[in-house]
């Protein structure tokens, strides 16, 4: 099996050591970074399958690190935050983080979140596609391969972050159904204990820029005013 490599970026030594110890027990190869600058440097030198990224770090903060990473990679990012502040969580997810967990956390929960992200994004060789679900979905101007996690718009492959793909996958497997922002957040981010409308809107805006011919006049992901959104792509019969 291909080696799974994880980067832990946190300025607290105790947390770095604890996470490294437990993740290495799962047979992952683990590197550590103590600040944002080192995190970015290591990411240029190595290929990681997942990054645990602290929100509050010296040199360059976690939000800015996440933003810069998203400019060149779609690697899953699990944000670690010591601040129980919804604004920080929303901002982190809006910058491209795939999930977050608040300190103090259960180490078992962190390991479970890491495994879920790795499994979801095919890094462990599997995927969470239902056995009865079509794996190649085609619409006019858009093709989504659920098994290979690839997307083509106007015949060209486009790069989506993990959460952007999960959001698109949910839309294309539920065409013409209207969903509220709360429903989308709970389905795609798997959090039922908070309602995070802003995160959903940020991701939909980014997704539209990538798949819509004219993002200012979206034809695929349409807004249903006062309710939410629906996917109205026309099936490709060819």
UniProtKB/TrEMBL annotation:
Gene3D superfamilies: 3.40.50.2300, 6.10.250.690, Winged helix-like DNA-binding domain superfamily/Winged helix DNA-binding domain. The modification 4-aspartylphosphate is found at residue 54. Keywords: DNA-binding, Phosphoprotein, Transcription, Transcription regulation, Two-component regulatory system. Residues 134-233 form the OmpR/PhoB-type domain. Residues 5-118 form the Response regulatory domain. GO terms for cellular component: cytosol; protein-DNA complex. This is DNA-binding response regulator. Residues 134-233 bind DNA.
């Amino acid at each position: 099996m291909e080696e799974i490599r994880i980067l832990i970026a946190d300025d607290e030594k105790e947390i770095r050591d604890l996470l490294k110890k437990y993740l290495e027990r799962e047979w992952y190869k683990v590197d550590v970074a103590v600040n944002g600058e080192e995190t970015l440097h290591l990411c240029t030198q190595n290929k990681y399958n997942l990054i645990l990224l602290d929100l509050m770090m010296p040199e360059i903060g976690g939000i800015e690190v996440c933003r810069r990473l998203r400019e060149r990679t779609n690697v899953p990012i699990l944000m670690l935050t010591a601040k129980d502040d919804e604004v920080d969580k929303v901002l982190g997810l809006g910058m491209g983080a795939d999930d977050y967990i608040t300190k103090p956390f259960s180490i078992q929960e962190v390991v479970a979140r890491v495994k879920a992200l790795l499994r979801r994004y095919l890094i462990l060789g599997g995927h969470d596609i239902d056995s009865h679900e079509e794996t190649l979905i085609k619409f006019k101007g858009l093709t989504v391969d659920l098994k290979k996690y690839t997307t083509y718009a106007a015949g060209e492959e486009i790069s989506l972050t993990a959460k952007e793909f999960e959001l698109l996958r949910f839309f294309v497997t539920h065409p013409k159904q209207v969903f509220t922002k709360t429903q989308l957040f709970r389905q795609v981010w798997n959090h039922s204990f908070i309602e995070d409308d802003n995160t959903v809107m940020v991701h939909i805006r980014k997704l539209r820029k990538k798949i819509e011919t004219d993002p200012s006049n979206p034809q695929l992901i349409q807004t249903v005013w006062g309710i939410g959104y629906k996917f109205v792509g026309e099936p490709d019969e060819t």
